[in-house]
Structure formats: structure tokens, C-alpha cells
Amino acid sequence: MITRKSKREIDQMLAAGKVLVKCHKEIAKMIKPGITTMEIDAFVEDFLAKHDATPEQKGYNGFPGSICASINDEICHGFPRDEQLKDGDLVTIDIVVNLHGGLADSAWTYAVGEIDEAGKRLMEVTKESLYKGIEQAQVGNRIGDIGHAIQTYAEGEGFSVVRDFTGHGIGPTIHEDPHIPHYGLPNKGLRLKEGMVITIEPMINEGAWGSKMDDNGWTARTIDKGRSAQYEHQIAITKDGPLIITDQDSRD
């Protein structure tokens, strides 16, 4: 069932979003060769506790971490672990914050040390594809408009769009209807209405778009070992246009 959120509910999400953004900005300072994603996970849990918030995905269907940490060819849902990040790695940190019942969800890809030009371009195109999708998150548009904008841009730049994982509705639980594919046809699918809150979170690959699952039943990775990047924002559909609940104030 698709629910439209009240102003009070969206305000709760905005408050959670402020905590999440502060957390991501601290993580950005931590990313360097030698750090482990387990250390980042511990930092996030402590940071959220200090802000009277909790990591919503910890324990969700048995997920072990306070964050998802996906490295290089891992597309999403990587487990935090003691493996040290290396110079040139890409790592995506995905966090869902619960602040007094309001949820905020955002993933961000970070470069570890110095990365190659191909990696930089993958990150740039993925981030831009997110904003191409957000531009279409307008009252009266359809879900297909979001996916089509992302797909045509990313594929036009020579990359592929993951199809096995999508954005979603959110609040008061992590994953709600509707699904928000990052590919599709314009003017197709459910019409967007004021009060809907969704995530847009394109996962863009260097090579083929297909994925395969690790034995842990959670972590998805590319089928050809190409790298993957992801940027995610949570969006409220309003009469004045898309409201980015997890806005970091810039595209940097």
C-alpha cells in the first residue's frame, strides 16, 4: 500500500535527515587508506547514539551492521568488515537513520585516496544521474519518468544501470511501496502525488548491469568484476517540486 505522508511526518524525516547528513560529512573526513568499514560502522553507531538516533538497518531481516559498506565491484548491501580500504578503492556507505520514528535514508560513494580517471568519471556520472532522476520527481509525473531520465543519461555516458535493485517508498518502515526503478519508459507507471516520500538511488556499473549474490545472502556484486557506484537521496513529492530530505547542500 502506498501512503502519502503528513507535514508532521515529513518534518520528522527532515529532522532525521539533518542527523544523517552530519554523519555522512563526518564519514567523508574519515575515508582514507587503512581505515576499515567496521571502524566506520562503530563510528556511525556511536554518532547516532549521541544524537538520540539509531541505525534502522541494524537487525533488519538479520542485517548485522549499522551501515551497508560496498567496495569496488560490490553493488549494494556489503557487510562492514575488518578489511582495510586501499588507495584507489571506491566505497559506498548507505545509512538509514531513525530519529524518534522519522526515517532518513542516503547512500554516498567515496573515493579512497587517489583513484583513477575512470573511477572519477563513474562517480561523477552516477551522482549526476541521481539529480537527473530527482528533477523528474514532480507531482503529476510518473515513476517511469524518473527511471528514463537516469537510464538515458547514464547509458549515454557509456555506463549501465542496475535493474535488480530499486528505490522505494519509505516511512514509517524502511522499504515501502512503490518501487522506483532507475530505468524505464517515460509516462509509464504510477503517477506521483503530493505527500509521497521515496528514495532515488541509482546504482551505476562500469560494465554489465547484471548482479550476483554473495553467499551471505545480502551482498550483490557485478557479474564482470567492474566497479559500481551509488548515490541516494530521500525525496518528498511536494506541490513546489521535489524536497530533498537528505540534501547535503551541494553536489560535492
Any key phrases for this structure?
252 residues, alpha+beta, Creatine Amidinohydrolase, four-stranded antiparallel beta sheet, three-stranded antiparallel beta sheet, 28% helix, globular
Helices, strands, pairings?
Blueprint: H1 7-30, H2 37-50, E1 54-55, E2 68-71, E3 74-76, E4 90-99, E5 102-111, H3 117-135, H4 143-156, E6 160-161, E7 167-169, E8 176-180, E9 197-200, E10 203-205, E11 211-213, E12 220-222, E13 228-230, E14 233-238, E15 241-244
Antiparallel strand pairs: 1-4, 2-4, 3-12, 4-5, 6-10, 7-8, 9-14, 10-13, 11-12, 14-15
Helix pairs in contact: 1-2, 3-4
3D architecture notes:
This is Methionine aminopeptidase. Its EC number is 3.4.11.18. Keywords: Aminopeptidase, Hydrolase, Metal-binding, Protease. There is one protein chain. By secondary structure, the protein is α+β, with helices and mostly antiparallel strands. The protein has one domain: Creatine Amidinohydrolase, CATH 3.90.230.10. The protein is 28% helix and 26% strand. A hairpin with a 6-residue loop joins strand 7 and strand 8. The mean pLDDT is 97.
